Amino acid sequence: MNRLLITLLCACMLLGTIPLPTDLANAAGSGIPVQSVDEYVLQMMDSADLPGVSIAVLKDGETYVKGYGEADTSRNIPVTPDTLFEVGSNSKAFTGVGLLLLVERGLVDLEAPVTRYLPWLELRTEEGTAEPTVAHFLYQTSGLGSDSVALIDPSTRDTALQDTVRGLSEKPLWYHPGAQFLYSTGNYDVLGAIIEAVSGMSYESYMSAKVLGPLGLRQTSAGRTAGKEVSQGYKPGLVGNRAYEAPVYRGNTPAGYILSSAADLSLWLSYQLTPAAAPPELREAITRAQISDETVKATETPPYTMPFHYGGGWLVFDNGDHSLFTHGGNNPNFSSYILFDPAQQIGVAVLGNRNTTATYAICQGLYALQQGLEPAAAPMDTIDAANVAGRIILMICAVLCLWMIYLCGRDLRLIRKGVRIRRRSSSALYIKTAGFVILAAVAVGVAWYLPKLLFWGYPWRFIVVWAPFTIAPAMILIAITGILFPALRLLKMWFPQRPEVQTDRRAHLRVIEEEVTL
């Protein structure tokens, strides 16, 4: 069951610079429907309650880049085309190019076992040891479990990437390498570790010197760097969005923590649409990253309605007479989605400062608008649905807790006044007490395990970081409610009212009934 839930999460998860004015570039006279784009993005932001969004739209050589909303709501800082966001799993395409550059230079062999470059990495299946190749990690067919994201610890250490990759061997591979596609964020952390081992440089330094710099992506960086202000990230809370500073996962940078802006992504997209326009040393790597692995069966997972193969950081869809390339990216407090169609020369990138599937919906909608089509309805947002459930639980449990606390307080006062007295012990009383204690333990267990079930079997350390703010308090209130109810029943059972008080009450009720009858 956990593997099925984790696989669903992965589907969600799949969810020099061009000088640009603050709002837009090359919009006047272009084929890009600027007004429709603005209206659509603002409408989607309003319906999904997004703090800030930045977009890049390319069509037939024209570019439209714009920021909407706020990068920091507390300081009223607007989103601009230069605002930096974490791009999440869209980092994988950058890492793919970095790795394939080493392949083109003859320094890495895709068909070589990964242990040639990382001899200390020991992977195994349930049957025994396994020797996945570098290509298996590039194309997400290594068999590494989709729960690898939950194995990554927060860290800022220089050895964080190597520590992350070593940690991937804690669990056996789910499948034999090369057997099938299975999206796992850890695959690209392994590629990052190979880059470090072969280049002799840190992943961050290599990407800056060999990929990002030569491509002219001046604002883009592998991980956070001093002097660059990044948009504030947000998570949904009880009322609206709340700022959230997620832990630093330096060991997951190759797979999910590259930072970029819409301005830089417009240039990145232009190279994807026309690799020949890229710097000569990177053209072949960019082109090769777009070639998908055809050795495994195509995969179809929600929200996608067509099967796809995986390339070097791209989902590759067979769109009839041409290919369509996409990829999503989700971090605890950021999200992104990138799409490009070389045949129609359309590219779209959407960045947001909240973890949401709305970025996917906006990107798909903008792609539809460039073709003169009506955008499809947005899919359900798992994070928003979880937050709504958390809000409902919080409100119901808060009312129940307050009511039971009041009743417990009233009964304790009656005990002090002698209106309630302790009942004589008996076997039946102890058995009933044991039953209520078990009931309380069950309630606490439900509060502990329910989020794990809802969040794909992941541990609480993952849930606290990735889930909405309402989930942890909601589970705490479920546990408190589950303890208070048995406690209230036990209090009444062990300290019943004095017999004469009960008799007086019954007599009083009979008098009332007689008066009503008369």
Furnish the topology, listing elements before pairings.
Blueprint: H1 2-13, H2 34-48, E1 52-59, E2 62-72, E3 77-78, E4 85-86, H3 91-104, E5 123-124, E6 129-130, H4 134-138, H5 160-167, H6 186-199, H7 203-212, E7 221-222, E8 234-236, E9 241-243, H8 253-256, E10 258-260, H9 262-273, H10 280-289, E11 308-310, E12 315-318, E13 323-331, E14 334-341, E15 346-352, H11 358-370, H12 382-416, H13 427-454, H14 460-466, H15 471-494, H16 499-517
Antiparallel strand pairs: 1-2, 1-15, 2-3, 4-10, 5-6, 7-10, 8-9, 11-12, 12-13, 13-14, 14-15
Helix pairs in contact: 2-11, 3-6, 3-7, 3-10, 5-6, 12-15, 13-15
What does this structure look like?
With 518 residues, this protein is an alpha+beta fold. It has helices at 2-13, 34-48, 91-104, 134-138, 160-167, 186-199, 203-212, 253-256, 262-273, 280-289, 358-370, 382-416, 427-454, 460-466, 471-494, 499-517; strands spanning 52-59, 62-72, 77-78, 85-86, 123-124, 129-130, 221-222, 234-236, 241-243, 258-260, 308-310, 315-318, 323-331, 334-341, 346-352. The strands form 4 sheets. An 8-stranded antiparallel sheet has the order 3-2-1-15-14-13-12-11, with helices on both faces. β12 and β13 (323-331) form a beta hairpin. α3 crosses α7 (203-212), α3 (91-104) packs across α10 (280-289) and α12 packs parallel to α15. The chain starts with a helix and ends with a helix.
Summarize the main sheet: 8 strands, antiparallel
Bin the strand percentage: 5-15%
Number of helices: 16
Q: Give the overall pLDDT as a whole number.
A: 89
Q: Evaluate the radius of gyration.
A: 29 Å
Spatial gap, N to C terminus = 65 Å
Percent helix range: 40-55%
Q: pLDDT below 50 for ≥5 consecutive residues: which ranges?
A: 4-13, 15-29, 514-518
Adjacency order of strands in the biggest sheet:
3-2-1-15-14-13-12-11
Name the overall outline: globular
Give the tally of β-strands.
15
Main structural class: alpha+beta
